[in-house]
């Protein structure tokens, strides 16, 4: 199982590199930079954000999902194989699902804004920004909760501590 996780991390890393390469090789859209505002001196107009996002939209969306999967795979790699029980995998999958849902909502809200030019405001920010400011880091709290609540079960149990104490005692009594 350990080697499968390591191989999945490698595959996910290669996939990230390929997606970044596809993004880098995507031709620059026409009118990709801002132009001077006709009424306000020194102000710039961003033009059509939807046409700038369109060529890399799928690559960017999937890059972030692959990154989230890689984070979860690295968390799994940090847990001793014999301690990875079904509850651990379910909890880790839930953390991934929550983070992927937040990313999907943020990306969808941004695309909707680009398509319509209209957005709703939540907690003082446009909807996509609200997802970024409040929900992205909150979604990461799932992994923090898994670590904190599962510490004795998955990371360092009382049995591990006793074995460590016995090892220290045996090494100092020599």
Question: What's the layout of helices and strands?
Answer:
Blueprint: H1 2-25, E1 35-36, E2 44-45, H2 49-53, H3 57-77, H4 86-116, E3 121-122, E4 125-126, H5 127-149, H6 151-155, H7 158-172
Helix pairs in contact: 1-3, 3-4, 4-5
Structure notes:
This protein has 7 helices and 4 strands. The protein has helices spanning about 1-25, 50-55, 55-75, 85-115, 125-150, 150-155, 160-170, and strands at about 35, 45, 120, 125. The model has no long low-confidence stretch (mean pLDDT about 90). It is about 70% helix and about 5% strand. It has about 170 residues and is mostly helical. The radius of gyration is 23 Å and the shape is elongated. A two-stranded antiparallel sheet has the order 1-2. A two-stranded antiparallel sheet has the order 3-4. The chain has 2 domains: about 1-80; about 80-174.
- Helix-residue proportion: over 70%
Q: Mean pLDDT, nearest integer?
A: 92
Q: In whole angstroms, how far apart are the ends?
A: 38 Å
Tell me the number of helical segments per DSSP (H or I, 4 or more residues long): 7
Oligomer: single chain
Beta-strand residue fraction = under 5%
Q: In terms of structural class, how would the helical and strand content be classed?
A: mainly alpha
How many strands, what sense, and barrel or not for the largest sheet?
Answer: 2 strands, antiparallel
Query: What number of structural domains do the residues give?
Result: 2
Order of helices and strands: HEEHHHEEHHH
Largest sheet, spatial ordering of strands: 1-2
Low-pLDDT sequence parts: none
- Overall, the morphology is elongated
Radius of gyration: 23 Å
Number of strands: 4
